[in-house]
Amino acid sequence: MEKGGGKGRTPSEHLVVVVGGGIAGLGAAQRLCRHPGFRNLRLLEATDRCGGRIRSQSAFGGVIEIGAHWIHGPSKNNAVFQLALEYGLLGEKEMSEENQLIEVGGHPGLPSLSLSSSGKNVDLKLVEDVANLFYTLLDQTREFLHVAETPVPSVGEYLKKEIARHMVEWTEDEATKNLKLSILNTFFNLECCVSGSHSMDLVALGSFGEYAMLPGLDCTFSEGYEGLTNCMMTSLPKNVVLFNKPVKTIHWNGSYRHENFPGGKFPVLVECEGGEKFAAHHVIVTIPLGVLKEQMTTLFDPPLPQRKAQVIMRMGFGTNNKIFLEFEEPFWELDCQQIQVVWEDTSPFLDVKAELQDMWFKKLIGFLVLPPLESSYVLCAFIAGHESEFMETLSDEEVLSSLTQVLRRITVTFILENAQSLK
Q: Is the pTM of this model over 0.90?
């Protein structure tokens, strides 16, 4: 939201307030500071740090990502990638022309190891075949971007409709068919993590293609993603960023005076919870959608136009969580990068009604194997949706107990087979 005003004002007199110090707020402030017409700028951050959901932390003898993990599509048209290059935060492999030209279609890589809920190895060729079907159909959903009317409302409904059509041609035995459906269900859960949604039935088919797919093999920051936002913050002039300034109310569409600018009138006055006030000609609000939805009725004075308020409330904002598990010794091979978990009693066509306490962990898509750290081996599990929200209500001990049982269950045969092969 921005509001202009005041005739006869020279470009150097523009006062701008940016609310929120995540990467969006930092990016807006950085862009404005590079323009000669916007030298009077303040960025108000509610906490004592910038970065928002980009947060790196020292743990396990290394650096782990509590929030954002990858640069997706690291290539010339990716703004995050270009900033990382500018600040010298990537290695030679990540910066290479070869890496930037790899086409992955925006899809995650296939697992190095797939384990079933009965503790068996799932054939990786079968996983690859199912993945090819799933991602072929998922790519088709992007073709409805500018269509006047979609055949079904959601991405999930479209995928299930097309899968049912393909199932008619499956010739395997019943056990293999059921296993394929369980693998498909795992890919549905993975896409829920990618889309930040509880269910793909909640993701609109007509607008799904708006997400731009860029070439490049997803890459990470060896020293932590937060290095990027730290560089962006330090590039700003001194005193632009103000910490611990939670905003209470944004008064806009008015004519406000401020003691620091006698005789001046401003269309915007940003009031913080501590009582401080910042006059501005423009305000840029970059707070998370969940916070915006929760505080919208009190944050803006006067209230936002009904049309904008309705759009904000209709937008979805899902929950993603990571769970880090530390091991003294790995049960996986050292070249393993990703472990998939397949729950054999699941299917995209089954809507299981059960207590979250008894099945929240079935939404786990598996485990990312982090690069070996100084003194330990670490798996990172991903989970989204209502199950992810329920997990937040549990203690660390309860989460650990559940995941220990999951790991014992899926590795029982795998570990025995490996032990026998070593004899």
A: no
Give the residue among 288, 271, 289 at the shortest CA–CA distance from 280.
Answer: 271
pLDDT for the residue 13: 63
Residue 386's nearest CA partner among 294, 319, 321, 289 is 319
d(CA 371, CA 393): 29
With b for 16 or more beta-carbon neighbours within 10 A and e for fewer, the 60-88 pattern comes to bebbbbbbbbebbbbbeebebbebbeeee
According to the model, what pLDDT value does residue 417 have?
61
Nearest Cα neighbor of 382 from 335, 345, 339 is: 339
CA dist 179 and 177 (Å) reads: 5
Token pair of 172 as six digits: 């395997």
Handedness of CA 43, 48, 52, 57 (dihedral sign): positive
Measured CA to CA, the distance from residue 90 to residue 95 in angstroms comes to 6
Confidence category of residue 373, pLDDT binned at 50, 70, 90: confident
Residues 175, 331, 186, 68: what is their CA dihedral angle, to the nearest 10 degrees? Answer: -170
What number of H helices and E strands is found in the chain? 13, 15
Q: Which of the four pLDDT bands, split at 50, 70 and 90, describes residue 315?
A: confident
Tell whether the model's pLDDT for residue 1 goes beyond 50. no
Three-state DSSP at 342 gives: strand
Radius of gyration of the chain (CA): 25
Do the Cβ atoms of 43 and 287 come closer than 8 Å?
A: no
Q: Band the pLDDT of 414: cuts 50, 70, 90.
A: low
